């Protein structure tokens, strides 16, 4: 089974992440900044900084969708990169 993680660090990113999570068939794991978590969310809350979470889900997932600026994504993931055939697929929505 493909493991997909969706991570959002902004209010707008959280709204888009919720929509995407509902539409993906493989039951993704949604991670939302605690400040933007709603009671009805089926999501895991996290506190900033996002670095520990993003680096952990990079190791645990097959696919990542990150709702954050591209520059932040590059800085967070650079230390994790190994090989394009082994690393998870990453989509950044800025």
UniProtKB/TrEMBL annotation:
<protein>
    <recommendedName>
        <fullName>Cobalamin synthesis G N-terminal domain-containing protein</fullName>
    </recommendedName>
</protein>
<dbReference type="InterPro" id="IPR038029">
    <property type="entry name" value="GbiG_N_sf"/>
</dbReference>
<dbReference type="Pfam" id="PF11760">
    <property type="entry name" value="CbiG_N"/>
</dbReference>
<feature type="domain" description="Cobalamin synthesis G N-terminal">
    <location>
        <begin position="54"/>
        <end position="94"/>
    </location>
</feature>
<dbReference type="InterPro" id="IPR021744">
    <property type="entry name" value="CbiG_N"/>
</dbReference>
<dbReference type="InterPro" id="IPR052553">
    <property type="entry name" value="CbiG_hydrolase"/>
</dbReference>
